[in-house]
Amino acid sequence: MKKINLIFFLFISVFALAQNENIDSLTIKMCSNFKQTIHLNDSVRIKILNEEFIIPYLDKFSEKDREKNIDNLYFRFQKNCQNFREYLYRVDPPKSDNWLSLEKRPQVKVTDKEISQLKKLENLYYFEYAGEKTIVKTNSKYWIETFADGTNSKLYFNWISHNKFELEFIESNNVGRKNFSKKGDKYIYEVVSKEKDYFWILVTIPGQAEILIFKLFFK
Question: No. of H helices and E strands in the chain?
């Protein structure tokens, strides 16, 4: 997931927070504020977040600590706040139809045979929100991702029902992924349908209502 330029660039440029247990509680408070200011201009909403939450907290840290923790707060805020992700979707929409945001859950049309086919596949890929290709290798235990910049993520991979699987984050050396997720974070994926060379996959974050689907391609 990439950072937003223009006005949002000013927002993330002041982000700094030590990686500790306080970051999620802070982003939850920020999310509540962001939801309450939905009637205001975007630049005003960002300014309020900076003045009421970000800058006061950052004053507790040295300049060195601020610089190395910019990404952490940005991506955890994105992960913990559906309203913020919806804002990002609006100001910087996907570059293709590989990702779609839906208002209601789609009808599941995938067949038993198609699910069996997917479970046998070990080489997959999908396109990031910004268009970069991510390679996926799977086995009975792990889901390994290799990103366009050569970095990787490792997650536990477990089928939890007929057409649903769970990914549990283990580790990553990718800037976005290692800051968006922390060890033990879980994500539920539901196989919705199969097309010629890809599956439509619905992804949800437990406890959040946002509905996103993406294309998972197979070779």
Answer: 9, 9
